Amino acid sequence: MKLSRSKIFFVVSDVLIAVYLLVAFCSFDKKGGNHTPCNKVSIDIADNVTSGFIDAKIIKDRLQKNGIYPIGKEICKIDTRHIEEMLSKSPFVQTANCYKTEGGHVYISVTQRMPVIRIKAENGDDYYVDDNDCVMPTTHYTSDLIIATGNINRWYATNYLSPLGRVIMANEMWKNLIEQINVLPNYGIEIVPRIGDHIVHIGRLPDCKNRTERFAAIKKFMDVKMTRLSKFYKYGLSTVGWNKYSYIDIEFDNQIICRKKSSKHAYVAPVAMPVAVQQTAEQAQPTAEQAQPNATPTQSTTEPAQGKKETTKPAAKEVEKKPEKAEKKSDKTEKKSGKTEKKSGKTEKKSGKTDKKSAKSDKKSKDDKPQKKKSSNKR
Asked: How far is CA 100 from its chain centroid?
């Protein structure tokens, strides 16, 4: 079978092009590897502005520590695959890509793991959970995240608290409002807002087996609860005061249960009675008691004294609030009790005079009797 000239021409041309390309690539690698050193390294980290724990300086220090930083090395001796594998071993790096160009530049692109919530459980665990529902270790670098405390294990943190953290961080208002999440022993959720001095109970998170369905259910749950809470803030606390309630329960639909701050639980320091006032009050009581038996013959004088004795008791009770007024009242009671004693003494003197007069009248009556007898004998 004879081939046409056109077919032979196309086959020969394809072979020549393939050989040319092969020689060109080989000569490029040989030239760049031998003569072109790396003069620039560009490190790009995604989402470095918003949050995260790594930056370009950390990546550079890690490459220099392992001896694979590209600056000054020939392009052919730079192992980009080794750089990617080394960076991917970091618990804070999700993906790492490295490639080199003809001009001696090396580009490194890193996607870091984004933490969405920090866990500080009551059993002592302290770690982060990222946006892929995976556990991240703690580091000396800090990030402005919501802290979850209480009855938390790793399974509950990765399956429920991680979707909750993603929902909250996606909403700008909720992210700035919520400061802390507390998990109760029955897995009820309490949130601590940044404003006011109260705790908000929202109830248990919805249960779902599928990951995507669980995230959608938690998002819907938070939309309903936070909408009710924002309305309560707008129409309720804005009028009565932000610090009036200590606990707000929005677990059930169509009702909001609030607990007021009770003054009974507040500690009030006892007010001590002044020593001078206490002594005057104690002295006023026995003087008023002594005035009663001495003034029995004259009831009209004792009744005012008794009434004044009763007024000293409420005055002694009010000493804690107005000690100066109590001192003045106690001085008045002492003066008046002294007056009652003087009056009782006068009544005793008067009674003594009446006794003497009665005795004299008796003697006169005795003297008159024998005179009458003598007059009768004379007759």
From this structure: 52
Report the C-alpha gap between 284 and 335 in whole angstroms: 10
% helix, strand, coil for the chain, step of 5: 55, 20, 25
pLDDT tens for residues 292-307?
Answer: 444 444 443 333 333 3
Tell me the DSSP string of 62-131.
HHHHHT---TTSBGGG--HHHHHHHHHTSTTEEEEEEEE-TTSEEEEEEEE--EEEEEEETTS-EEEEET
How many residues in total does the chain contain? 379
How is residue 192 written in tokens? Answer: 């601590």
Are the CB atoms for 45 and 110 separated by under 8 Å? Answer: yes
Contacts of 354 (CB under 8 A, 6+ apart): none
**Of 115, 174, 187, 120, nearest in space to 147 by CA:** 120
Question: Which residues, in sequence order, are bridge partners of residue 43?
Answer: 108
CB atoms within 10 A of CB 264: 5
Count of alpha carbons within 13 Å of 71, Cβ hemisphere only? Answer: 8
Sole residue written with tokens 């959608």: 216
**pTM across the whole model:** 0.57
Closest-CA residue to 111 (of 132, 129, 142, 140): 132
